[in-house]
Specification:
Distance between the termini: 5 Å
Order of helices and strands: EEHEEEHEEEEHEEHHEEEHEEEE
Number of strands: 18
Strand content: 35-45%
Largest sheet: 18 strands, mixed
Mean pLDDT: 93
Shape: globular
Number of domains: 2
Low-confidence stretches: none
CATH class of the largest domain: Alpha Beta
Radius of gyration: 18 Å
CATH superfamily of the largest domain: Diaminopimelate Epimerase, Chain A, domain 1
Helix content: 10-25%
């Protein structure tokens, strides 16, 4: 028997943000089989479910499953997982925790209800620049590339690879209507989880509006995506759209009527005394507990 919770991540209100399943294994118990975890994620019906093994004080091993497969890392499920652990009294406000994931060993900080998580070292995978590929990508998304933006789509990973796709305005972003079957095939072609589209804004307190599509993993659209937000923070920094140590807030999920506020930061690793990689990227937010109970496995 395992504890489970349903958590709305990246929100301070129920039914906002991005819901995730959280399953906590009894101490000393090993993970169920991959098949059981996939079936459990499919039964819970959320885009991702986090399975938590408690290794010791403030040390955890978390595995992440969509209804279709395991993924290396999931940002909103991580925020949900650590808010759930705090809710259950396993951790407390102000703790720094270690999260062992398939994307590496990540530090998690809790402070005043926020969960801020380290992202993996950013990886520049490729730039989509030729006319044919640009037309294919934007056509599949139901949009059109605007040359006046002066920036190109790029495949970046801070835990999971996604295509960062700039669009010209919030209106153009909201009008996107992807061909999900074609986008799944395109995602497979580029070996990415999906597409993270964004439009910059001068709106007070918001850096950019974003939408995320991952039909290859049975997620047509996601209301909040932590790993993609980490990749976008890096993309904006490397393209000189933000500065180091900027206050970064992404607003995602508006098209789904589940608005999500996602905080992010990027700084040089040297500036924060880290000897891991060139950059230190954090992503986080708040979460609220919708339900909790037990799973009979």
């Amino acid at each position: 028997m395992m504890k489970f919770l349903i958590v709305d991540a990246f929100s301070e209100k129920l039914f906002g943000g991005n819901p995730a399943g959280v399953v906590i294994l009894p101490e000393g118990k090993s993970f169920p089989s991959d098949e059981i975890m996939v079936k459990t994620a499919a039964e819970l019906r959320y885009s991702e479910t986090a399975f938590i093994s408690i290794l010791g004080d403030n040390e955890f091993n978390i595995r992440y499953f969509t209804p279709a497969a395991e993924v290396d890392l999931c940002g909103h499920a991580t925020v949900g997982a650590f808010c759930a652990l705090a809710h259950l009294g396993v951790i407390k406000d102000g703790d720094t925790c270690t999260n062992h994931t398939l994307a590496g060993e990540l530090k998690i900080e809790t402070c005043h209800g926020y969960v801020m998580m380290d992202m993996a070292e950013p990886q520049d995978i490729s730039v989509i620049s030729d006319t044919e590929s640009l037309e294919e990508l934007y056509t599949v998304l139901g949009s059109k590339y605007d040359k006046s933006l002066g920036i190109l789509p790029e495949i970046i990973s801070t835990g999971l690879p996604d295509i960062m796709v700039p669009v010209s305005s919030e209106k153009a972003l909201g009008a996107m209507a992807p061909d999900m079957k074609a986008l799944a095939a395109l995602s497979e072609k580029y070996k990415v989880t999906g597409v993270h589209a964004f439009s910059m804004t001068e709106e007070e307190g918001i850096t950019a509006h974003t939408r995320n599509f991952a039909p290859l993993y049975d997620i047509d659209e996601e209301a909040a995506t932590g790993t993609s937000s980490g990749a976008l923070a890096y993309y904006l920094y490397k393209n000189s759209l933000i500065e180091s140590n900027s206050e970064i807030t992404f607003l995602q999920g508006e098209a789904m009527n589940r608005p999500s506020l996602i905080k992010a930061s990027i700084s040089s690793a040297a500036a924060v005394g880290s000897d891991h990689g060139k950059y230190k990227i954090k992503v986080g937010g708040k979460a609220v507990i919708l339900a909790e109970g037990e799973i009979n496995l």
